[in-house]
């Protein structure tokens, strides 16, 4: 059986401290038919230099480096997708890493069911993970996804044909990935989560600490704008819209409380 090409899209902005470990985790994958596309999103540190050195040192791998003026991760991912040749697109943020068999395991999920369009996986904070030999997948439809984002971007593999039609919103800075998953699910494309840890994130809580995740209200507004978009597009009705926005606001209050007491 011919191995399908997987295009790995990595947006990188001022990622000099993490980009090497990120790339190493891709190069160490048990699945080998990969092309890596790094989009340098106007970095002002040594990210560009580190990428150039890495490319020269690892000239046997398919590594393409693209440069753009700083436009945010959505624009960077869209740019990478436009240059990708793979049948599948895998996303990875520059400060995250993959477990060694991530792509192999997720492609096995696609082989199980040709109707599956998107596969996510579990994430680990630091190295706190416990993968056994089970191969369980959970179906995530639109109704379930409205109440929880099951797809962290660095865990997602999607068919390229889908992403050529449905793109990240480059004007949205917060929860922009969540909007894309909602729209894919709303198109009745089958989305599943593999119940295995596939991605290692930085050793910190998921919100309320630093970077974008510390801006809880902006994150909440991004989420609420996603629900408004779904309502305007007719993906959900008015009652569903009111229910999920209320539920989302209560989640925001809970996160705010956790952040306060953590300090």
General description of the model:
Strand 2 (34-41), helix 2 and strand 3 (63-68) form a beta-alpha-beta unit. The chain is 40% helix and 21% strand. The protein has 263 residues and is of the alpha/beta class. Helix 8 (216-232) runs antiparallel to helix 9 (238-262). It is globular and about 55 Å long.
Topology at a glance:
Elements: E1 6-12, H1 19-27, E2 34-41, H2 47-57, E3 63-68, H3 73-83, E4 88-91, E5 97-98, H4 102-112, E6 116-125, E7 137-139, H5 142-147, E8 157-159, H6 160-163, H7 176-186, E9 190-201, H8 216-232, H9 238-262
Parallel strand pairs: 1-2, 1-4, 2-3, 6-9
Antiparallel strand pairs: 4-8, 5-9, 6-8, 7-9
Helix pairs in contact: 7-8, 8-9
Give me the number of helical elements: 9
How many distinct beta strands? Answer: 9
Series of secondary-structure elements, N-terminal to C-terminal: EHEHEHEEHEEHEHHEHH
Largest sheet features: 9 strands, mixed
Quick recap:
With 263 residues, this protein is α/β, with parallel strands linked by helices. It contains 9 helices and 9 strands. The longest helix is centred in the C-terminal third of the chain and has 25 residues, at 238-262.
